[in-house]
Design goal:
This is Kunitz inhibitor ST1-like. It is built from one helix and 13 strands. It is mainly beta and 192 residues long. The chain has a single domain, classed as Trefoil (Acidic Fibroblast Growth Factor, subunit A), CATH 2.80.10.50. A hairpin with a 7-residue loop joins strand 9 and strand 10. Bound molecules: 2-acetamido-2-deoxy-beta-D-glucopyranose (NAG) (3 copies). One 2-acetamido-2-deoxy-beta-D-glucopyranose binds next to loops. The site of one 2-acetamido-2-deoxy-beta-D-glucopyranose has 4 residues, from strand 5.
């Protein structure tokens, strides 16, 4: 299909080099190391950073919510998100991760779709024509609990950024990455 060629253009134009990660562990906003496969809110980092957490929204020609967006509302923590590493460790290391929205024990995994009118966007997995790559979580600034996401195919990566237009969609771009901290979502007593 056409997609391989489009993606190679995307690789040439978009990307920063992602060095092989050390095995640093991911921490939440309070500096505690977090479980691999834990459930989190992804919240804006820094005083005065706009908006709230991350959720799924129905945009453009979607018939159900398939777009991953930042909530414009400061008090809105968004959806709980499961972040897991394919490396089977107890705690979450920096590096490749799978992210999925948690709905009543059903996971809606994140993926990336290119060539949309607004660019290369983060969507949930039932979207057609997704790219075969991987999200990567990395510290955004040394000595902080602030993180960013990349989307990589092999060693070529783009930053996951928020496009601040009508809907605050998450996109893979060369722009400054969206910087965030994690807040752990504790299981409710109903889950135990
Ligand atoms: C999060 O997702 C991983 C991978 O699918 C799964 O193994 C883990 O059980 C999930 N965590 C929770 C708390 O549901
Ligand atoms: C929406 O339209 C675009 C073309 O503009 C297409 O690539 C995409 O797959 C469509 N999305 C859905 C959910 O059908
Ligand atoms: C996706 O990439 C993985 C790792 O590079 C590869 O093993 C797999 O076959 C690819 N899948 C498709 C559908 O291209």
């Amino acid at each position: 299909m056409a997609s391989a060629m489009l993606f190679s253009l995307f690789l040439i134009s978009a990307l920063t080099f992602y060095p092989p990660s050390t095995t640093a562990q991911v921490t939440d906003g309070n500096g505690n190391i977090v479980k691999n496969g834990g459930i989190f809110y992804i919240l804006p980092s820094g005083l005065g950073a706009p908006g709230g957490g991350i959720r799924a929204l129905q945009t453009d020609n979607e018939t159900i919510p398939l777009s991953v967006v930042q909530s414009p509302f400061k008090g809105d923590k968004g959806r709980p998100i499961n972040i897991s590493s394919p490396i089977r460790t107890e705690f979450l290391p920096e590096g490749p991760v799978v992210l999925s929205f948690e709905y009543e024990n059903v996971g809606l995994e994140w993926t990336v779709v290119e060539g949309l009118p607004e660019g290369t966007l983060v969507k949930v997995k039932s979207y057609p024509n997704t790219i075969n790559g991987s999200f990567v979580i990395e510290k955004a600034k040394a000595e902080t609990n602030t993180y960013k996401l990349l989307f990589c195919e092999g060693v070529f990566c783009g930053n996951v950024a928020v496009v601040r237009n009508e809907n605050w969609v998450l996109a893979v771009t060369q722009d400054e990455p969206y910087e965030f901290h994690l807040e752990q979502v504790l299981p409710t007593s109903a889950d135990t």
